[in-house]
């Protein structure tokens, strides 16, 4: 395999580990845990994996050289650092016993069910250390949920003499990891299942998970690009740039990029929902800032838009919920129709209030909202052109204001969508170390006999040596929510907390950023050089974890 000069140098980088994971390890158990909500229902659904204690790794004098084969799966959207989770897992398994084997199931959870796998060897992993992407074994979105799939998986697990499966995924994939752990435990198959918190979206976080891996690198890549666009914008002074940013549901990515680059406008979906804003309110807000800047002769600016915005506009959100149920219950009938007939079908079946919202949306957007859901029942928001919808509506509003004599200016718009550019980037030092530590923790959870746990690493704003590694029972993060029209146990998604330090810090400065041109140009991720540049974490993590900063926000 031909590699770039950067890749060759990065392959030599030895990720740092928390002190407790550097040698032999033992576990310290905490108190029994309970789910975040719906305790009785979750306990009933997970009788074998509910209530287990939190665990923390501490140094030990020695450790048994357990012989164990493990399977690993990458699930869902790519996130920088996935290869380092696998490297950490591989190295730790080999350290415990050089005869241990690691198998990678190909193209996501489907690889387990269809028995597609490779053995991960030392030569193979070498070229993937500290690289971005999931191409070592590929990823996929097959949902592991049926007994059939679990039993098909078991056949290959038995054939390869595998004792544990590690599923590297987001909230949905880790929920499924727990369902699988519970099933194998109930059947007494002796197969452990361990999860790992991945997603650039940053919404798999809670008291135990400080951040999901990939968020750090992806937001740095987007912020670099936004900074470059901002500088172009401030050089030419003739365009408004509407930048849509990935993040299916939560606005963490957009908020972090705003904190790093200081755009003129940044929309946060969670605030729009909390304040019950309409599409028209949002359009007016943007148009007001455009008009305000035009008064100062500034017919240019930067708008950041989270890709999940549309679902958070309360009226549209209600419509999407009803569409989800409609598609879940009548999907087959509906999918067989052509576009025009699909629109008529929806209009005929919607409740009056949601019908009104549906018919007032531009036809293209209404159609995008009615497309097939992903396997987890989510609207595929990355396909919805929210940035174009907003700029068209702002343009129409400004034209009206111009006619009424309320606005004089030029409004030339350029659109960007930043998403896929960041998901496979070379991981930052933070993600390289964090992921390697997560993989090492996953191996330790396995050899310590745990199942239904997710690997965690805490205290991540401190130097790596001081990080605290361990595991959290997945049931601890669960509650019951409606998915695909059915009430299901799921890990609760972390949305932007409007009382949290990152949002408050942004909200305290946005008026100034709207009027002034205060752009920051973060530049590219640095891998070698001064620690304050190479090892800096996200603004979000620092603001959330640093109690001193929080009191100043
Ligand atoms: P995960 O939650 O699986 O990590 O994926 C997140 C994400 O990158 C979202 O930001 C985006 O909306 C979605 O994946 C895109 O999905 P796809 O890769 O299937 O196009």
UniProtKB/TrEMBL annotation:
Active site per database record: 201
Activity-regulation annotation: Non-allosteric.
Domain Phosphofructokinase per the UniProt entry, residue ranges: 69-390
Entry EC number(s): 2.7.1.90
Keywords: Cytoplasm, Glycolysis, Kinase, Magnesium, Metal-binding, Transferase
Residues annotated to bind diphosphate: 77
Enzyme class of the recorded protein, top EC level: transferase
GO cellular component annotations of the record: cytosol
Keyword Magnesium: yes
Known function: Catalyzes the phosphorylation of D-fructose 6-phosphate, the first committing step of glycolysis. Uses inorganic phosphate (PPi) as phosphoryl donor instead of ATP like common ATP-dependent phosphofructokinases (ATP-PFKs), which renders the reaction reversible, and can thus function both in glycolysis and gluconeogenesis. Consistently, PPi-PFK can replace the enzymes of both the forward (ATP-PFK) and reverse (fructose-bisphosphatase (FBPase)) reactions.
HAMAP family membership: Phosphofructokinase_II_Long
Subunit-level organization: Homodimer.
Family: Belongs to the phosphofructokinase type A (PFKA) family. PPi-dependent PFK group II subfamily. Clade 'Long' sub-subfamily.
Protein name, entry field: Pyrophosphate--fructose 6-phosphate 1-phosphotransferase
Organism per entry: Prevotella corporis
Annotated gene: pfp
């Amino acid at each position: 395999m031909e590699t770039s000069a950067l890749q060759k140098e990065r392959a030599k980088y030895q990720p740092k580990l928390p002190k407790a994971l550097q040698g032999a390890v033992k576990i310290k158990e905490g108190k029994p845990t309970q789910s975040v909500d719906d305790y009785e229902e979750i306990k009933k659904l997970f009788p074998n994996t509910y209530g287990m204690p939190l665990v923390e790794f501490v140094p030990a004098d020695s450790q048994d050289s357990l012989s164990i084969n493990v399977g690993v799966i990458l699930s869902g959207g790519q996130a920088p650092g996935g290869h380092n989770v696998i490297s950490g897992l591989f190295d730790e398994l080999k350290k415990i016993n050089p005869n241990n084997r690691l198998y990678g199931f190909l193209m996501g959870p489907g690889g387990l069910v269809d028995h597609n796998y490779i053995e991960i060897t030392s030569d193979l992993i070498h070229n993937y250390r500290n690289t971005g992407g999931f191409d070592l074994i590929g990823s996929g979105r097959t949902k592991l949920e049926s007994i059939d799939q679990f039993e098909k998986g078991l056949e290959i697990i038995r054939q390869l003499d595998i004792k544990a499966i590690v599923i590297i995924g987001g909230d949905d994939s880790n929920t499924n990891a727990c369902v699988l752990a519970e099933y194998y435990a109930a059947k007494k198959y002796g197969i452990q299942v361990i999860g790992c918190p991945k997603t650039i979206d940053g919404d798999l976080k809670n008291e135990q998970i400080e951040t999901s891996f990939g968020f750090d690198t992806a937001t740095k890549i987007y912020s670099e690009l936004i900074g470059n666009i901002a500088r172009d914008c401030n050089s030419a002074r003739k365009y408004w740039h509407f930048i849509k940013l990935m993040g299916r549901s939560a606005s963490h990515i957009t908020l972090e990029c705003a904190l790093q680059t200081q755009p003129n406008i940044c929309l946060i979906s969670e605030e729009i929902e909390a304040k019950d804003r309409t599409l028209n309110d949002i359009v007016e807000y943007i148009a007001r800032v455009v008009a305000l800047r035009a008064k100062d002769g500034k017919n240019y600016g930067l708008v950041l838009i989270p890709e999940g915005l549309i679902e958070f506009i309360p009226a549209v959100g209600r419509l999407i919920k009803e569409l989800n149920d409609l598609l879940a219950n009548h999907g087959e009938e509906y999918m067989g129709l052509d576009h025009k007939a699909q629109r008529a079908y929806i209009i005929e079946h919607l409740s009056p209030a949601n019908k009104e919202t549906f018919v007032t949306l531009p036809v293209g957007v209404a159609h995008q909202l009615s497309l097939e859901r992903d396997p987890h029942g989510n609207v595929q928001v990355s396909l919805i052109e929210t940035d174009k919808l907003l700029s068209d509506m702002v343009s129409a509003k400004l034209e009206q204001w111009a006619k009424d004599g309320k606005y004089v200016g030029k409004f030339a718009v350029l659109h960007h969508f930043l998403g896929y550019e960041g998901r496979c980037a070379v991981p930052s030092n933070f993600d390289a170390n964090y992921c390697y530590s997560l993989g090492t923790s996953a191996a330790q959870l396995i050899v310590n006999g745990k199942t239904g746990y997710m690997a965690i690493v805490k205290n991540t704003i401190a130097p790596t040596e001081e990080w605290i590694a361990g595991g959290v029972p997945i049931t601890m993060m669960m509650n019951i929510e409606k998915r695909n029209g059915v009430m299901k146990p799921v890990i609760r998604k972390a949305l932007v907390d409007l009382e949290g330090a990152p949002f408050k810090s942004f909200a305290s400065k946005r008026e100034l950023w709207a009027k002034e041109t205060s752009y920051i140009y973060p530049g590219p991720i640095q891998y070698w050089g001064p620690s304050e540049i190479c090892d800096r974490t996200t603004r979000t993590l620092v603001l959330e974890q640093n109690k001193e900063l929080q009191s100043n926000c």
